[in-house]
Every structure is written in structure tokens, then in C-alpha cells.
Amino acid sequence: MKNTVRVSVVAIAVAAMFQAPAFAQSLQDSVSMAIKTNPDVLVETNQRLANDEAVKGARGGFFPKVDLLAGTGNEWSDNTTTRALGYNDWRKLNRQEAQITLTQMLFDGFAVSSEVGRNKARVESAAWKVLGTSEAVGLRVVESYLNVLRNQEMVRLAKENLNAHTRTMDQIDIRSQGGIGRKSDQEQSAARLGLARANLVSAEANLRDAEINFQRVVGSKPLALTKPSAPDAGLIPRNADGAVDTAVANHPILKSAGADVKAAEYQREAAKSGYYPRFDLELGYGNNKNLDGVKGDNDEKYAMLRMRYNLFRGGSDMARVSETTHLTNEAREVQNRTQRQVEESTRLSWNAYTSASERLPGLKTHADMSIATSESYAKQFNLGQRTLLDLLDSVNESFTSQMNYTSAMYLEMFARYRVLADMGQLLSYLGVQAPEEGALSQ
What we know:
Layout: H1 2-19, H2 27-37, H3 39-59, E1 65-77, H4 80-84, E2 91-107, H5 111-177, H6 183-218, H7 240-250, H8 252-271, E3 278-291, E4 294-308, H9 316-382, H10 388-422, H11 426-430
Antiparallel strand pairs: 1-2, 2-3, 3-4
């Protein structure tokens, strides 16, 4: 009885194992995996984290600074004090020092506040770069994902084409054996069969290349990829200007460039701090011994408001302000250049989408009609109503038209994703969470 139960359990487990669906790697899974592991994204996330620490470091300038000084050693003194004490030569004493000083900055010409603002702007810029890089990596994943699927389709079509030519070759051989075939037909059919084999080898090589590229972008080999549904056409603006307006308003890299401008402006304000006096509150206590040739304790306590105002530094302050002004202008031009690049990329993507959409119906009609023609020619060839050349040409045209339609179909699908990426909406459409370093703390 126990053995029967064991056999039943094993049988159920084996049956469940074979009935369970194989693991399918969806497009969303691939994009999510890439964003978590892709070095380009991780570089930007670490830059964001470094900038967070830079803000903390800049804020430290608002807090008091406490310094501790301690020292011991020999001191030789020859001054009016030692001579008054009866020493006509150097007096040697063991000098000891112990001091603690607290310094609180009261006003520094807005240097610290400007530095805090600059680093906050750098944090904002880095956060947008994380999002922008994630969108770019996501689009590369989409491209490599669809490219693997497209090449898998190409391999399937190449195999079907090879099978069609193999069947034709078999028919010609049978005719030749029956004494009704011609040697030229055999040669022509063999030539087309050889070309079909070469096409299959090429298609398989292209598929391997696509799989290698997928592994480079995603970080893993493609496993049971499933064809995704294309983004709804309603998500794509009706004209290029609408797509550009959305891209300019949302593109993360453009927003990062805007944050870089703010960082440069804060840097210029920090450079101007040299034009202002600096005020500090200093509290100190010293417990010293044997100073300046006088033996014994020499303690002190003080509370001072100190002003430091540089009157001349060789023109360094003016040069620094001029330098940061040029850096601010540079940042603005980088922003302008980035906007032009975003606009160009968006228009190109929108044009690629519209042209691919317009070509698709014609290519589908061509493929459907070519398949029907090839099937009709095959029947007519068997009845002696078509020549072998007619049949081979129809098979080749059917194969070529299907290849063209398949390529155009995946190109049109990728173009939709590309427009979404240019508008900064790819990850949100896919439902993929961007790295948390891409979020700005309130």
C-alpha cells in the first residue's frame, strides 16, 4: 500500500512538472533586470549617492567647528622677560600646550549657503540622469529584445523557404527518374536549394548575434522571449510638434541639464563671497605651561567676535567670479544643445514611426498576395501549366515579401517604443520601477 502511494505521488509530481508552463522572459522582466544590473545605470546611481554626501558635507559649514590642540617639547627663550629674571642666555623650559577652540561662522558672504545650493542642484541633476539613463537602457533592451524575436522569425521563414525548395527538388528528381525531367531543371532547382541553405545559415548567424547583444545589454541570455503587444497608437502624438512639446517638458536628460545650470549659478554666487567680510564667534580655553621662558601655568579663556576682511588677493576673487560666469554660460549652452538634440531625436523617432506605419499595410498585402501566388503556382506547376522558373521565382518572392513584412512589423513596433522613450514615458508605460536614486527627496 505504501509503495502504491509513493508511486502515485511521484506520478502526480512528474505530471505536474511536464504540465507546468515554461519560464517566459517578458519584455518588462528584461527591462527591470537590466536597470538593476546595467553598469551605465549603476554609474549614475553611485554619482547620485556621492552628491547626497556632498550636500551633507556642505551643510557642515553652518555648524560650529571645534579644534583641540595639544603639544609638549623643549623651548629655548631669550627675551626681555627672561633677562629681567636674571638669565643672560637662552633659557630652556619644557613647554606644554593644551587648547580647545570653538568657532561658529556668523557670516561668510553666503559661501556656505551657495555651496549647499550648488550641491543640491547637483543632486537634482544626478537624479534626472539616473532616470534618463534608465530610459535609454530600457530602450536598448526593447531594441535587443525585439531584435531577437525578429531574427527568430527570420530563421523560421528561412527554414520554411528551405523546405519549399527541398520539396521542389524532390519533385524534379522524381520527374527525372520518370524520364520526363530535364537536366537544366535539376541544376536550376539545386542552385536555388543551395541559396536557401545559405540564407538559413545567415539567418541563424544573425540570430546568434542578436542573442549576444541581448546578453550584453540585459546581463543574461534570452530565455523563452514572448512577443509583446505594441504601445497603443493613441499614446503617440498626432504630429511631431506635439511629441516634441512633450519631450521638452518631460525628458530627464534635459531636466538634468537645467539643474546643471542652477549648480553653476550657485557656484558663481559662492565665488562672490570673497568680496565680503567674514564674521566668526570664537570661544577658547588654554591650559599651557612654561611659555616664552616663564615657568608655571599660563592659562587663558576668551570669547571673541572676529572679523576677517581680505583687502587684496592679487585679483584672484575677480578672476574666480569671471571664471564661474563663463562656466554658467557654458552650462546654459549645454542645456540649449541638449534641447536641440532632444527635439531632433524626437522628430526622427516620430518620422520613423509614421513612415513605418504607412509602409506596413502595403508590405502585408504584398506578403499575403505573394504567398497565395506561390501556392497557386505550385498547383499549376504540378498540372504542367507553369514552368519551374515561374515556381522558383514565386517561392523566392514569397520568402522575400514575408521577410520584408516581418522586419517592417518589428521596426514599426520599436518605433512606437522609441517615441515613448524620447518623451520620457517608456518606463512608466512598461510599468517598470526606476531606481530609487532617480527620485528627489522633498
